[in-house]
Amino acid sequence: MGIVKVIEVIAHSEISFDDAVKQAVSEASKTVRNIDSVYVKDMKCHVKDGQITTYGVICKVSFRVD
């Protein structure tokens, strides 16, 4: 039986929510191996002068422990 660990990662993008999730996985994978899944826990936007400036996500990243 394998062990799965979950960490919480916060990421942002100036492009989209999708890109923010990709950034979260990309950054986490630099130091974490065996990533299995990502659960988007929360999403938010920053707004300036009536325009969205950044998209933010809080993700739970699951990975298998060796």
TrEMBL record:
Domain of life: Bacteria
Coiled coil start-end: none
Gene3D superfamilies reported in the protein's UniProt record: Flavin-binding protein dodecin (3.30.1660.10)
Protein name (record): Dodecin domain-containing protein
Organism the protein comes from: Paenimyroides marinum
